[in-house]
Amino acid sequence: MSLSKSSINSEQNFTPPNSNSPCIYEFDDFRLDSGHLMLYKNGTTISLKPKVVETLVALVERPGEVISKDELMDRVWQGSFVEESNLSQNIYQLRKTLGTCAGGQPLIETFWRRGYRFNGKVRQPSDVELLFATHTKTLVVTEEETIEDSEPERNGTFQINGHPLVREFAARELSSSRQTKSVRIKVFIGAAVLISGALLIFAGAPFLTSIVRPGPADSLGSIGPASVAKMTRMTPDLNTLSAAISPDGKYLTYDLEEKGKHSLWIKDVLSGGTSRLTPPIDVAHYDVAFSPDGKYVFYNTALKSHPNRTVFTVPTTGGEPQAISYDVISPLTISPDGGQIAFVRHEQLVIAQTDGSGERILQTRAGTTSSYESWGSNLSWSPDGTRIAICGSRIDESARRLYELIEVSVDDGTERNIPIPDWNYLDDVQWLHDQTGLIVRARETEASPWQIWRVSYPGGEISRITNDLNNYDNVSLSADSRLLLVVKQFASLNIWTMPVDAPSQAKQITFGSDANDGFYGIALTPDGKIIYTSPRGGNVDLWMMNGDGTEQHQLTKNAGGLNSRPRVTPDGRTIVFVSSRTGIRQVWRMDADGGNPSQLTRMTEDLEAEHPVLSPDGAWVYFNPFGKGSGFIAKIPINGGEPMIVRNSGWPFSISPNGKLMSLAFYDKTSSQPWKNGIMSLENRKTLKVFEEGYHVNEGWTADSRSLLVGIRDNDRSNLWLQPIDGSEPRQLTKFDGGILRSFAISPDFKQIAIARGNPSSEAVLITGF
Fold first, then answer.
1. How confident is the model at residue 351 (pLDDT cuts 50, 70, 90)?
2. Helix (H) or strand (E) run with residue 261 in it
3. CATH number, domain at 246?
4. pLDDT surpasses 80 at 693
5. Whole-number CA gyration radius for the chain
6. Sequence-ordered list of residues with C-beta below 8 angstroms from that of 497, at least 6 positions apart, any chain
7. How far is CA 368 from CA 399, 413, 606, 670, 675, in A?
8. Which helix (H) or strand (E) holds 57?
9. 114 and 148 both lie in a single domain
10. Is the pLDDT of residue 178 over 60?
């Protein structure tokens, strides 16, 4: 029996009150609570990061004064070493949020080489100082129940007979005769009310009300019993890639991976009985969904005869799957009447009949300055059938990509944005049945876990449904929105090392059940040290350690949410990497000890920089300027300068030690399998070899420039392979029994390999009471 721990988490991550005499300030339509770092506009909470609000507090406390950058940085970061770009980004966010004064003057004005000044007319809510302060911290309890499956029924005797009216799952009582067992962990639910300061006695409540006008998040009237969300593990100890709940809430369907094979299953929620819908195949069933009547399951999968993914449907009682739509790059959503489907094909939002006929393009995004989220991002047809909610993004005037929650009219394709916070990424959306809100999947920073949120409609107020360190995916709702099914993901990546000529001697050097070391890249220095990415400091940063895992220390800190893809020059003195510290991803360089950071690329408009690759002599940095709808290869001198275009399309992987060849991936629109890998000559830029069999995560070559080190070949994601560039048969290098290989690097002397690998898994979880 598997036992889950209940989790007790704060409903919000509260920032301690400002030590400088917490106060309420008002200006224009805004209200600033400096004690709790909250900003409101006309009573509505504005979602800003605490450091951004701290910057505003520092300015508002001294209106009309020019405050230097150094003073602001000392105030906000209190002696920590941070880049000035952090302050610039905070000012940018504030200007975007606050706008201008009534006369057109900016509320925050820049004085060149001096600092910033707040120009608003600041007022206190009352001439009487309020000395009474309360703060409530609510503890949200997640009660988890583990429902253990009996051995999945392999004989296929279980059937679904009809779809009677659903009874609310939370109210069901499990029969005492059932073969499954459950364990419930009850956790005390409490709230702590912190009262500080002296009590000022007023003559009547109306007088107090006229002084205390809290915003929604701190409203005294909103304090009440905390709601309890219950989590039930529906597929414990099974590696479930994709899952969905049936409209009546009685069944779930999921893709199950067993020994590298994938099959589609149906499970009865009440009895726990299971039945396999499709036989095992080599590729996964992505983005599963039920039809509105619960009689069919839709899913995407990859076919070698067609590009990208193909949409299939299969009856829930079993039968032969039928292909209905091709060249699809997103999940699909089904209209409430079950007559139509919608999906994304490249940058087009397409509607078709449920048999795939009658396709029409509803809306197209340019793909450069705006785009729809596609791969793995659920879209949702509104319950009244008039709109489709979809996630997307847009490049703003500062060349920064902002994520959007969009509703598209089914009649004419017109778009409307639903207000959301400035999330780092937005992915997955589902309408609530009464259309008062939507459930979304989002993350706050690059290093934050993917969490589930509720966004009210049409106002855009947000509240959290999950608040923990897990990642969640595949949002699915029952027809009455009482049941929410998600896939909980467990990430566990650690660093391993091994000699090139003795892969059996591989050993693990970092440890942690929730670690994610090396997810965004890894590199080895000439003196045997390892540089790797890790989110353990709160952002994705670069770390360094000895070859045996000792003396781990952080190289980047408080410099953007993402620092990734490290590369080391042949002399070991310089690290080239990608950083988001300016707001978009650029290629940077710094000394091997983390000092003297310097920006190399300056991407603008719709492009960011990714995947730096050093030439063997260390003189050039090849990189991939990419954006929605574009991707090409360029290079720039290691000491800075003007970039040069190397190839108009492709993603660079690595350069051969002799400096003559580049391994790259590219997209061939004329092929039924357009995603290709090949070898290009750097001398004449011609493609010399194309590999029809897929491989990925190519981070190196052998010393003789005759073979590639390949991290994923076909369906094997566990081991390293040697792929000769002449096209002869590959050779398996490592013998790991399972697990996932994420990234790797070879040492400059071609004797050692460092690998980021682990055993990530996922399971379907049902949430009720949210």
1. very high
2. strand 261-268
3. 2.120.10.30
4. no
5. 28
6. 506, 507, 509, 530, 547, 752, 753, 754, 755
7. 11, 19, 6, 22, 21
8. helix 50-60
9. no
10. no
Q: Compute CA distances 751 → 123, 613, 725, 745, 748, whole Å.
A: 68, 20, 20, 11, 8
Band (652; pLDDT cuts 50, 70, 90): confident
What's the 3-state SS for 244-258? Answer: EECCCCCEEEEEEEE
Question: Which tokens hold the place of 114?
Answer: 């001096």
Domain that holds residue 35: 24-123
Q: Which amino acid is at 684?
A: N
Q: What is the pLDDT of residues 476-485, one digit of tens each?
A: 999 999 999 9
Do 767 and 465 touch, CB atoms closer than 8 A?
Answer: yes
Determine the 3-state secondary structure of 309 from DSSP. Answer: strand
User: What is the per-residue pLDDT across 292-339, written as a single tens digit (0 to 9) for each?
Assistant: 999 999 999 998 888 899 999 999 998 999 999 999 999 999 999 999
Q: Which of 33, 579, 669, 742 is nearest to 345 (CA)?
A: 669
Structure tokens at 271: 């009895």
pLDDT at residue 322, as a whole number: 96
Mean pLDDT across the stretch 744-766?
A: 92
CA distance 390 to 163: 29
Rounded Cα distance, 567 and 618, in Å: 10
Query: In terms of domains, do 391 and 420 share one?
Result: yes
Overall number of domains in the chain: 3
Contact, 641 vs 601, CB < 8 A?
no
pLDDT at 679: 92
Say whether both 478 and 608 belong to one domain: no
Q: What is the CB-side half-sphere exposure of residue 356 using CA atoms within 13 A?
A: 12
